[in-house]
Amino acid sequence: MQQRKVTLILDDGSCFHGKSFGYEKPVAGEVVFNTAMTGYPESLTDPSYAGQLMTLTYPLVGNYGVPPFTFESNGLATLMESERIHAEAIIVSDYSYEYSHWNAKESLADWLKREKVPGITGIDTRELTKALREHGVMMGKIIFDDDAENTIEATYSGVNYVDQVSCKEIIRYNEGTDKKKVVLVDCGVKTNIIRCLLKRDVEVIRVPWNYDFTNLQYDGLFISNGPGDPDTCDAAVQNIRKAMQNQNLPIFGICMGNQLLSKAGGASIYKLKYGHRSHNQPVRMVGTNRCFITSQNHGYAVDNNTLTTDWEPLFINMNDGSNEGIKHKKNPWFSAQFHPEAASGPTDTEFLFDEFVALLK
């Protein structure tokens, strides 16, 4: 099998050489690493990876193929986290050309080619991860060694990726006059978040990230995950602040939703050195000895020191002490930086959905 040689070039000038196994086009973006051992179909289709070159630290990738890309009657992807791949590329150490799984319908390579997403193998991903940990997240580009025209450059900071992945019109799920209604602000929502809400038999009203939903009839507000810099999403922050004028309105945010709720409450956000992207992040519920292993995917964090007196941390990351969620001291508003609905990943914290739905009046 003839494979084209490719080079990953980081912003600091370092180069990593490998071979292509996906779609053949040059691509650029923010280079991030994910330490999960499984779940590449879910990660690739997670809209939070928009604009990023995803490095998998687990060495063997592709051995269980890709499940069928089917959709439920409500339009949600059955086994994926969105309707397409959102990562700009995938970088692996050892791609398995042979796959075996009872539910696999195609290889990872065929899927990448069909969706026109590059994949490169033969990269020393451990060395690459060490470089990212020492320097911090860097921009990078994947170029083909036999292509004389390699002028592509990466841009990530300041780009509103949420606007690129959010829905463009209102979508309703599980409609019913007798059901509690939840407005879901779509900043790049994962399908399993919607599934978790529908499993609890609420009506979900999915709105674009910048839509003024405050005139709708609803019982609770949910703010989803999403890609990029939360500071590009001021329209969402302003709408959340308008909704917070109703102090009895239950509000729950996940990942980007944690950051936007925090900003609406007056806190500041900062960029992590290399982000949290894995299935094994330990977090502790503040004020207790309860610890949870969580699945995460984010590059920004809430600055605990900027929380106003009405707010307090709900969860803390046990590795680096960063914020993993907030709650209001009086009103039914809370959030989590991790993904309690994660697939594949730990689901020990899915009870947060139960707590949110229980608050709906």
Explain how this protein is built.
Its EC number is 6.3.5.5. InterPro entries: Anth_synth/Amidotransfase (IPR050472), CarbamoylP_synth_ssu (IPR006274), CarbamoylP_synth_ssu_N (IPR002474), CarbP_synth_ssu_N_sf (IPR036480), Class_I_gatase-like (IPR029062), CPSase_GATase1 (IPR035686), GATASE (IPR017926). GO terms for molecular function: ATP binding; carbamoyl-phosphate synthase (glutamine-hydrolyzing) activity; glutaminase activity. This protein has 361 residues and is α/β, with parallel strands linked by helices. The chain has 2 domains: 140 residues, Glucose Oxidase, domain 1, CATH 3.50.30.20; 199 residues, Rossmann fold, CATH 3.40.50.880. Helix content is 18%, strand content 31%. It is built from 8 helices and 19 strands. α6 packs across α7. The longest helix is centred in the middle third of the chain and has 11 residues. It starts with a strand and ends with a helix.
